[in-house]
Amino acid sequence: MKSHFRILIIGAGSAGISVASRLLRHSSAFKHDIALIDPAEHHFYQPLWTLVGGGAAKKEFSKREMESVIPFGTHHIQQSVIAFDPDNNQVRTEEGQIISYDFLVVAPGIEINWDGIKGLKETLGKNGVCSNYSYEHVDYTWETIRNFKGGKAVFTHPDSPVKCGGAPQKIMYLAEEAFSLHGVRNQTEVTFNSANPGIFDVEEYKRALEGVIDRKQIKTNFRTNLTEVRGKEKEAVFENLDTGETFTTSFDMIHVTPPMRAPSFLADSSLAGDGGWIDVHKHTLQHAKYANVFGLGDASNLPTSKTGAAIRKQAPVVANNILSLLKGSPMEAFYDGYTSCPIVTGYRSLILAEFDYFKMPKESMPFNQAKERQSMYHLKKDFLPIIYWNGMLKGVM
């Protein structure tokens, strides 16, 4: 196995594969000189899991063999990185291999901290405790919703960054509509307990989503963080983040969005900044200290929502700026913080939120995207997966 690569990429998720594909499409000179390090055997299109949890899609369509999505001409090193040595342009894997590089791209994604909520791991997938953030357990979300007979349905958003800031509420809207279709809505109390101060950060979409909540008669408790789940007792413990006080509520079902964090091997390294995220310039995506290191995706400290749509705009910036440095030219590619969150509000409705670093809408459609639309629901359900597998991962979109 080679021990040196011109481009070494940590993480074969959306970000890592997209960057590799773009570099290879630019020049055949990179063929067999790019490596992706990732221990995973499968690659997942995780945005589909909201629809899987709502009974509108099959989870098998979100999963592919990793080797089938690795760009041709790229080495896949199926190991875990345990240490960075950027001063010597090296990383070390769990098997003790030292791999060196000319340029390093860090994109290992975000780590789900199932242990961050007391009792969650022990009861997940039973006792009415479900989560869309696990391929193994996402089917149980729909099983719970489909068999719900009324009572208290609780949905949570943790006090941490998460993959797609709108995802914790999307499954709530689908569940609420499913309860109506199944004739149990009048016997059901739907509650959203969120650590955030409001339903959304961008004012235009916030107003629209507040209207959705009012129409669906959903109770909201903001600045409220889940700390413990007692599955057998059907109880959940929450903390008021403003007062520090705790309270316990009963539930008949609870959808938990677990807390998330930077991967430990990154957080403990010299590449990390505040919070353990890789410390990069928010426009060039170049590391703050090491000029030959770039970072993007969910593991970065970029002050925008962690979404696949953000990665779609970040990947060309990283690839183009690396190409510029290789030519000895100034970096000109610029990331403006664009991100997007297709917020499903029902089985045939969606608000397509698109915005930048300034929390200003940056919309791509010729109409008001804060309005719920059936066409945008079909965009998410039917077209975005095609764009992902056949466009984004191949470096053409």
From TrEMBL:
Keywords: FAD, Flavoprotein, Oxidoreductase, Quinone, Transit peptide. SUPFAM superfamilies: FAD/NAD(P)-binding domain. Transmembrane segments: none annotated. GO terms for biological process: sulfide oxidation, using sulfide:quinone oxidoreductase. It comes from the Bacteria. Its cofactor is FAD. Gene3D superfamilies: FAD/NAD(P)-binding domain (3.50.50.60). Pfam families: Pyr_redox_2. The keyword Transmembrane does not apply. Residues 6-127 form the FAD/NAD(P)-binding domain. GO terms for molecular function: FAD binding; quinone binding; sulfide:quinone oxidoreductase activity. PANTHER family: SULFIDE:QUINONE OXIDOREDUCTASE, SULFIDE:QUINONE OXIDOREDUCTASE, MITOCHONDRIAL. This is Sulfide:quinone oxidoreductase. It comes from Salipaludibacillus aurantiacus.
